[in-house]
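#onboarding

Welcome to the new folks! Below is a worked example of what a typical request in this channel looks like: someone posts a single protein sequence, and someone else replies with the predicted structure as tokens. Don't worry about understanding the tokens yet, we'll cover that in week two.

Example request:
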Amino acid sequence: MLVSMNEILKPAKENGYGVGFFNAVNVEMARAVIETAEELRAPVIVGTAEVLLPAMELKRVADYLIPLAKEASVPVCVHYDHGLTFERCMEAIKLGFTSIMYDCSTLSYEENVKKVSEMVKICHALGVTVEGELGHVGDNDGVGRLKNPSDYYTVPEVAKDYVVQTGVDALAVAVGNAHGDYKFPPELDFERIERIAEITKLPLVLHGGSGLADSDFKTAVQKGICKVNIFTDIDKAGKAGIEAGLAAGAKSMMALIPYEIQAMREVVAEKIRLFGSDNIII
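Example response:
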């Protein structure tokens, strides 16, 4: 069933478990995520991000994600992540996405508040939920890498003001996490997570989840993380599945699909169990 992010994250916060958000840039990824969630009786969030649109255009993503979500036997939120422009966010809403993240984290605090609060007013009028980001989560590599990541960590007291002024439904935090592959184990600031969760009363979001240690995930969820973003891990798993299929003698693309989906399903199942959201839906 297609639902908003609030219908998934509010119970997660109340009951102390986390929910995975998995980017799905093709039908195989979408099937791996939703079919696994159904098997494990878990709520799930699935979607895409603006930086991933070169792989699959937004309308094409909506064409397969929205029907799959509606037909699912568990709650599925279709989320547009890291929306960088007002226009793209509006497009996602018109296409049927039930949640968006409007990422204004690289702007000044005043501009972040102004733009996100305006987006919240529009989205809430349409029954769409909004995730904001305060502080800034950089990348492990490339142009998005931050020289001193701790300079961009989310400040709890500022987070409270941000939440009050914007009215966001969930808050992405910068607490030592980063997008992409980690070259060294990150050191998450768990005390900061706990304090932000306590002071804002909102479900918190951890971006850059792929590659974290299992113990980090568990502690982060215990401290207040309700949504964990995963892409790199299932992206790499899909590639490994194709390679396994080739090694097994698969002779066509169609013959490779089951290998690709199964490899991604294993990663999705591992994360769902790790976050504690399996067997939530009766």
